[in-house]
Amino acid sequence: MLKPFLKKNCIRCHGEKKQKGKLALHETPFDFAKAETSDLWLKILEQLTAGDMPPADEEDQPSDAERNVIIDWIDRQLLTAGSGEAYRKKLLAPEYGNWVNHEKLFSGEIKTLPFSPARLWRFSTEIFTHKGFGNAKSPYSYVTSERGIRDYAAMSVADQSTVQMTMIVADSFLTDREKRGDFAKFADDNPVPEEQALRAVIMREHLRVIGREPTKNEREKYLTFFKDSIQTGGNLNGLRTTIKAMFLSPESIYRMEFGLGEVDEHGRRHLSPDELAHAIAYALTDHGPDRSQFIQELVRKGELKTKEDVAHLVQKLLDEQLTPGHWWRKDLPRIMRFFDEFFGFHRAGTVFKDNDRRRAEKIPQWNTDMLVHDARMLIEHVLKKDNDVIAKLLTTNEYFIAHPGDNKYAREHYEKVVAEITDPDYAEAQVEKRREQIKRDFNFEDMPEKAEHALEDARRDAEKTVAVYKASLEKGMYRHPSYPFSNKGRGIGDLLYIEPYNFPSNGRHGEQKWYWPLEQPLKMPKEQRAGLLTHPAWLAAYSLNEDNDPIHRGIWVYERLLAGVLGDVPPDVDAAVPTDPHKTLRERMEPLRAERCWKCHRKINPLGEPFEVFDDWGRYRAHHYFDENGEIYTRRDSQFSRKLKESKLTTRKVDAAGAIAFSGDPKVDGEVKDAVDMMHRLGHSDRARQSFIRHLFRYFMGRNEMLSDSKTLIEAEESYIDNNGSFKALVISLLSSDSFLYRR
User: Fold this and answer.
1) Are 710 and 112 in contact, with CB atoms under 8 Å apart?
2) pLDDT (tens digit, 9 = 90+) per residue, 417-426?
3) Cβ distance 206 to 200 under 8 Å?
4) I want to staple 656 with a disulfide (CB 3.0 to 4.6 A). Which of 359, 611, 634, 674 is the partner?
């Protein structure tokens, strides 16, 4: 099996006569117990899994079935021989999640029943924040990449620094409470408290630190420890030491998922009702089950045991709490956090944009917080409709821009503001309001001239406000009413930040040139926008300081929507793109088509370059502009308008052509004219839908999928499709799956 494959596909370049890359495979060793043999086969496995060997330009390629047989054989040899530690670690790491063969996962040929390994899953920073330990800094941090799903159980461990930070948290927490007088009864000059008082403290503090009441054995253990500590160090130190011991217990640091329920005939252990309660609570929220009346009620009634019980609970939680909550704090926060981590648009503000560029390129306000907020409102809108969710997120041209998200509230506030401003006495009322403020402000004491100037400014501002509102109303436009920060909506003062959407901006007293819709979402031009990957928030997050980032954009599409595998970047590769002011970014990237680079870049460049139809601010563009010296001209301010009018600029059409490959569907694969075209092709594909489901699986399970999770993934996809593309159905299926319910 193996030797014929090597002879047919490998030996001609890696044999006795020719050894490309100094690799010879004509006398390949098979003793996997030896480290050098395992290392060699691991390299071969990487090349085969990534599809980099045989090279793409070889006409006689092995079929997927032939390739998968060899991959499976190498995989088994590495694991059976007890070698290949590096390989096992790769299978656990988030960036290697796609290594499990996609076609096999969704083929239905895998009959192994799903389960998850029993594990300790360290609490996240978000869970810690809600534990009620005051302003103490979280002792937990992620070791995973910021660009992806972060909370992986196997990678979240409590090392020495975590334990040390936990002790600092405990000291800070206890010191604050001591200052508030919580421990006055345990002052050292008081007699030793009676046993009943000690037991009461143990019950109270255990519930506060661990999140549940202690068992009988735990009560007795802590009572003995409490008494010994008091005898050794006095009342107060005894109390502090006992509470700190609770902080050091495994349950204070970890979520414990061992499978304490019934064992089935296959040796799989079902999560107990208590484990289920915690697992579901932490899958959807940052709180334990004690904060959910739904979960508590079912546990109390003994109705949280079976797959059906779990599905019923998750359905109820999603129906009633999926999108409710404040705009910045949803009832089920981990749902929205998944979309942040999957798409990565929330990191838009981490990409530095120079202020000089901003002014020259007509970006009066680079407000990435608002762009991110707009993207989240779009996601929330799609989730509320809960129909064909994945495709709509990837293809919709309906956006929210400078809107609170709630049309009823938007109209109520707008009508209130318009009525107030169009009142004949508005200017006088604003002056009077300012006069009252001045009376209470010590900065104006005995300064009548300064006060008079302030009143004049107030009148002038009020009159300007009246004028701009009247001008907009006369044009039949809704004047943006400056929404305040409130429980119902984020504060949005003006339309200054909207240039990345290709809409003209204006400040508070500026002329409004865009017909801002009061009811949203609004329809963007179909030829310019298609889903979140053409949203300015995503485009900004996957850009560079001064230009686009087609490499990482292509990697995102390849890995997140096509479940693609990329090999490790060789350490001696210089990834810098040469600078040349006379060339477009795409032209400067031509050297990457050289043989050595193109092995990997052939997978990502054709997927990243279609986004060149946008600039790095997120604006749609059809042309590049060049000045008299033939250099790219990026200014978009008055100087640009003048040069354009004087015919001092030449234009060249943006080349945003690309191609989709590896989708598994010949109707999807092929050339695309730009990112919008690409997203409409990809957004409705089976591959994108299945890849999305794989990432959602990792988010909820805290691990990469295994081949044995095939049944879980197939059932999740079927549930999604059968329920007309319902995200709720997808979540319910995953959280009531065998992969979620069983441990082994």
Assistant:
1) yes
2) 999 999 999 9
3) no
4) 674
